[in-house]
Design brief:
This protein is 43% helix and 0% strand. It has helices at 2-9, 25-38, 66-76, 82-98.
């Protein structure tokens, strides 16, 4: 919780003491921007998970992944630990994945026979 609090106080994530799964329109636009830029328009599938409550889900507040955040921290001279970055990366990836189309998986079964 200390790591999450630090990320929240520095403005990198939304309020983290919530169990809400609602994403605001601002959050959706952040996800859309990142997905379009990194994966293409076809991968965007914004979802509206409606729930009651004052807070929205825990999410990144900018369309910056962990590598971009590292550069930003150096530029702004903000000191966050590697564990802060790992937590941010987890939150960021889950948030972005929640706003993308479902993955299509192809399963292949291979059988090998060994000749004796």
């Amino acid at each position: 919780m200390k790591l999450a609090q630090d990320l929240f106080e520095n403005g990198f994530i939304t309020y983290h003491r919530t169990d809400s799964f609602r994403i605001s329109n601002i959050g959706k636009s952040i996800a859309k921007e990142y997905i379009k830029e990194n994966f293409g328009e076809n991968f965007v599938k914004l979802r509206s998970f409606e729930s009651a409550g004052a807070h929205e889900a825990i999410r990144a507040t900018t369309p910056m992944d962990m590598e971009e955040i590292k550069g930003f921290l150096m530029f702004k001279n903000i000191n966050l630990s590697y564990n802060h970055l790992r937590l941010y990366d987890l939150i960021f990836r889950k948030f972005i994945a929640s706003q993308m189309k479902e993955a299509i998986l192809k399963k292949i079964l291979l059988k090998f026979w060994i000749k004796k």
